[in-house]
Amino acid sequence: MFYARAMLRESVTLKDLDDRHQDVRAWCFACARGTVIDSIIWQRFAARGWPQDLASAAARFTCSACRSANHVALYPTRRPPAPPNAPSLLVERFFFDVRSLRKKRDPIAERAIARLVDQWRRR
Ligand SMILES: [Zn+2]
């Protein structure tokens, strides 16, 4: 039973969670520490062509305590209810995400952002 559930978890992707309005909990078994991450992060994985199933994606989440991803596992978790100012928070988050990606000078992210801005302009 446990094995079957583990297999099921491994076939679930970050985008599946976002589609189901769930977020992802990253848990480090070495430190017994965890954090909840918005599953919208699948877009970053998609832009970079990284595998998005929870088992593979775990390798990209490093623990803030031990700085290692070796003992990190990902689990679906319930998304907190959206606050009344959710739309403005979304815009804010997009702005800060774009700004931090630009600072990193990531060519893939730059192209993704340019495409998004272009789509907005064509509306
Ligand atoms: Zn750790």
How do you describe this structure in short?
With 123 residues, this protein is of the alpha+beta class. The chain contains six helices and three strands, in the order ααββααβαα. The chain is globular, with a radius of gyration of 16 Å.
Explain what this protein looks like in three dimensions:
- It is a single chain.
- By secondary structure, the protein is an alpha+beta fold.
- It has helices spanning 2-11, 14-19, 42-48, 54-57, 86-104, 107-122; strands at residues 22-28, 33-37, 72-78.
- 50% of the residues lie in helices and 15% in strands.
- It has two domains: 1-80, no CATH class; 81-123.
- The relative contact order is 0.14.
- The chain is globular, with a radius of gyration of 16 Å.
- The protein starts with a helix and ends with a helix.
- The protein has a three-stranded antiparallel sheet.
- The structure holds zinc ion.
- Zinc ion is lined by residues 28, 30-31, 33, 63, 65-66.
- Residues 28, 30-31, 33, 63, 65-66 line the site of zinc ion.
